[in-house]
Design brief:
By secondary structure, the chain is mostly helical. It has helices at residues 4-9, 11-21, 25-51, 65-93, 103-113, 115-120, 129-155, 159-194; strands at 53-54, 60-61. One of its GO terms (cellular component) is membrane.
């Protein structure tokens, strides 16, 4: 958790510190990912069960506590899986580089890069669709920035190669995010009708 402020205030320096730490995946998950992924889950649970989704047309859809809890558990699992998948994607894409990092390093890197997305979940306390979309887009842009500045130091490559690598990684990450969001919406819609 001590890297969160650094990633927001001085990201390049913090990425270099993260790279030197050699953190294990289990330590990273228990001290960062599990906690940070809980932020959007808890905020969405509170927002959707207490206030309800406001789609801007005057209709507010509020979930029951049981449905909200069920969907929160699924959402949490999807986010944890998303970080692990992105770590594997980064490892796979780095296979041809001379200073190829380990899979564990790639998973740790993916978890730290996802920090802005986790923090953007705070806005789900008051679930307005347009506000969530706006804040999510800003968080995605900052995640792309973290990739752009972090990849060259992480893979020990120049900035130009880093731009290509981070662009490709971001594109795959956005695709994965869209799949996870689609699954969440489908499960939410199915859960709303089921419960």
């Amino acid at each position: 958790m001590n890297h969160v402020w650094g990633l927001l205030s001085h990201p390049l320096r913090e990425m270099q510190v993260i790279r030197r730490e050699n953190e294990t995946v289990s330590h990273h998950y228990t001290h960062h990912v599990l906690i940070m992924a809980a932020i959007p889950v808890l905020c969405a649970f509170i927002g959707t069960t207490q206030i309800g989704w406001d789609f801007g047309d005057g209709n507010v859809v509020r979930l029951s506590l049981f449905t909200g809890f069920y969907l929160a558990v699924l959402f949490y699992g999807l986010m944890l899986a998303g970080v692990a998948i992105m770590g594997r994607v980064i490892s796979w894409m780095a296979r041809d580089y001379p200073h190829r990092p380990s899979l564990a390093s790639c998973m740790v890197f993916a978890g730290y890069v996802a920090t802005p997305l986790f923090l953007s979940g705070i806005v789900a306390l008051y679930p307005l669709v347009w506000l969530c979309a706006l804040v999510g887009t800003l968080a995605l842009l900052y995640t792309g920035y973290l990739l752009y500045i972090g990849i060259p130091a992480f893979l020990n490559i120049n900035q130009e190669e880093g731009l290509r690598f981070s662009g490709s990684t971001l594109a795959i990450g956005v695709l994965l995010l869209e799949v996870l969001l689609a699954l969440t919406v489908l499960l939410w819609g199915y859960g709303y009708r089921l419960f």
